[in-house]
Design brief:
Layout: H1 5-17, E1 20-21, H2 22-28, H3 36-48, E2 52-57, E3 60-65, H4 69-84, H5 89-99, H6 104-120
Antiparallel strand pairs: 1-3, 2-3
């Protein structure tokens, strides 16, 4: 299940903070900050989707992510490759390297990463 843009923005904050109370989450937003009720609604939807849970501490809730950022991002990228690049990682890599205006240094770093992965296989 995917997150909406608003949910994803809140999830980014929660991944960074790891554990947070409502006031901490709201304070982490740039101005203009969303209303408490808006953040509460987003958290409830994210909890229903099993992305977030909380620990009740007195009258406060300490929220924490149930999904790792790397796992979410990996699923997102794989879906992108499947849906937009005919499930072809090489088509995606070709598009990425041609359309992002990478410098020679960045391309060399990318090549080193690929070479390292090849050696592991």
């Amino acid at each position: 299940m995917a997150l909406s843009n608003s949910e994803e923005q809140l999830m980014q904050i929660l991944w960074k903070q790891e554990r947070a109370f409502m006031k901490d989450l709201i304070e982490a937003y740039p101005e203009p900050r969303p209303a408490t009720t808006t953040v509460a609604t987003l958290l409830k939807r994210m909890q229903d989707k099993n992305f977030v849970d909380y620990k009740q501490l007195g009258r406060s809730r300490e929220y924490f992510p149930l999904v790792k950022k790397k796992d979410y991002f990996s699923k997102h990228v794989n879906g992108l490759i499947k849906n937009f690049f005919n499930n072809s990682p090489s088509q995606f890599a070709s598009f990425f390297t041609e359309e992002t205006n990478l410098s020679k240094k960045e391309l060399e770093e990318l090549k080193a990463l690929i070479d390292s992965e090849i050696k592991k296989k």
